[in-house]
TrEMBL record:
One GO molecular-function entry: hydrolase activity
Similarity-based family: Belongs to the carbon-nitrogen hydrolase superfamily. NIT1/NIT2 family.
Domain CN hydrolase residue range list: 1-239
InterPro entries reported for this sequence: C-N_Hydrolase, C-N_Hydrolase_sf, UPF0012_CS
Keywords: Hydrolase
Organism: Streptomyces olivoverticillatus
Protein name: Putative amidohydrolase
Amino acid sequence: MRASLIQTAVDPEEPVAARRARVAELVRAQRGSDLVVLPELWPVGAFAYESFAAEAETLDGPTAEAMSDAARDAGVWLHAGSICERDPEGPLYNTSLVFSPSGDLVRTYRKIHRFGFDKGEAVMMSAGSEAVTVRLPETTLGLATCYDLRFPELFRALVDQGTEVFVVPAGWPAKRRDHWTLFARARAVENQAYVLACGTAGTHAGVEQAGHSIVVDPWGEVLAEAGADEEVLTVELDLGRVAKTRKDFPALRDRVLGR
């Protein structure tokens, strides 16, 4: 399976509509990939809290429409990162969108672990409550978002649902970049699964972004890692490595707690 991670730059001077159109073209340029992944909250910026309410969208809003068209035009499965979702009943959510190659919105994931402690996302957005997987013809994806990486119990729940490939869009700050790569490798090793972790470049509301999107295999080996600027990583995933790793080193069968 060929996967492409688009490490999108978020420039506060670029209008959201312009970035949406530009990113849609970047997705279209990945024709030939099977799966394309975008970062967390790329339309507005993960730390642009003051813009969340104004830029919030419904699941049939302009970002979903643009990404649906781009997925269909490219003929790819598209994890379109996440948007500020405005639920019809009022709450905001940090919601990931997954589109099929025909452009259908097949799954959404509302971020469970909200970052900010007592400010920002943690108080402005509601929490999701469901671990979400997506069945592709080749494999099963498990969905997580940014801060979720710090909570291994979510990844265990996703493994129990059949996950072989974790997809983690993020807006991770540069000052904690080492944590980003550490957690991506740890989640891969402990669950013997691929991790596709796609971050942003640029600066969100004065917060420099880590970039360094990363693809890790089920043994914890880094297959590809981006730099700090906008970049596309394209990697061929040997999905048979998941089953082989779990067979050759069957640590998951020795789990006791959490069963």
